Design the sequence.
């Protein structure tokens, strides 16, 4: 069945330079490994079962959750800023005989052709919007794309509680189908006053133990951190109601001690 109308399924906007390109995109799935047991897969499916369909996956990337949900018969679409990641998602969908609808847009300029019962932003993707004003605008756009009574859910990581070693460390390594291997080195540093994380990564492709290709990527800043209280306030300011947070990917109420939490909110109906 493929992906319906092929490239025409991707509705582009004129976007600013994007980070997830080249070896980052090519090796994204490989370096993540088997994600079928990750707890957010079941959690966001629970959100959808209560919020309803259709669904929008914000920051869908290569389709880690989106393609699984499509296979389960869920009416879900995806949006991402990276054409490289979306091309991989489209290729994977075609290989699996799935039809997907994808948008290449920055979330703060979200403009799809329909509205949704549920919008999810997994993998802390919302935090990649480092400008505070743009983050608020992104939430407003998500709010506007919800149907009355619809649900929004996003995962947030409080980076103040994360280690930030300012030195290179080997983060992941995996074998590629052509018997070469790829590895990722990373280092990060954090400004607690600005609540911004700065990251640098080095991707290397090795053949018979020798580096034959490398790419260095620097994101300054790369990620914005939020405390639980800040995240709840920001979502409420965008107009959402019934704003609450759950600890990690459970149904337990979150506390200020949580490193990872999920914010859920509704558009009044």
Sequence:
């Amino acid at each position: 069945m493929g992906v319906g109308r092929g490239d025409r399924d991707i509705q582009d906007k004129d976007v600013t330079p994007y980070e997830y390109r080249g070896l980052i995109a090519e090796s994204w799935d490989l370096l993540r490994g088997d994600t079928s047991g990750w707890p957010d897969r079941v959690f966001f499916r629970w959100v959808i079962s209560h919020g309803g369909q259709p669904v929008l996956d914000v920051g869908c990337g290569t389709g880690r959750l989106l393609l699984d949900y499509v296979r389960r018969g869920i009416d879900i679409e995806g949006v991402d800023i990276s054409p490289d990641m979306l091309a991989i998602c489209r290729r994977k969908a075609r290989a699996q005989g799935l039809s997907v609808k994808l948008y290449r847009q920055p979330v703060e300029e979200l403009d799809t052709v329909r509205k949704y019962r549920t919008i999810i932003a997994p993998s802390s993707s919302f935090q990649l919007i480092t400008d505070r004003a743009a983050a608020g605008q992104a939430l407003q756009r998500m709010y506007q794309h919800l149907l009355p009574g619809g649900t929004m859910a996003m995962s947030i990581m409080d980076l103040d509680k994360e280690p930030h070693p300012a030195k290179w460390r080997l983060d992941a390594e995996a074998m590629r189908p052509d018997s070469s291997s790829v590895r990722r080195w990373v280092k990060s540093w954090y400004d607690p006053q600005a609540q911004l994380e700065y990251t640098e990564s080095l991707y290397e492709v090795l053949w018979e133990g020798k580096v034959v290709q490398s790419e260095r990527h620097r994101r300054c800043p790369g990620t914005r951190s939020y405390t639980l209280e800040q995240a709840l306030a920001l979502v409420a300011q965008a107009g959402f109601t019934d704003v609450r947070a759950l600890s990690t990917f459970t149904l337990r109420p979150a506390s200020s001690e949580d490193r990872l939490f999920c914010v859920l909110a509704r558009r009044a109906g």
About this structure: The chain has two domains: 6-158+226-266, 170-224. The longest strand covers residues 210-224. Residues 1-15 have pLDDT under 50 and may be disordered.
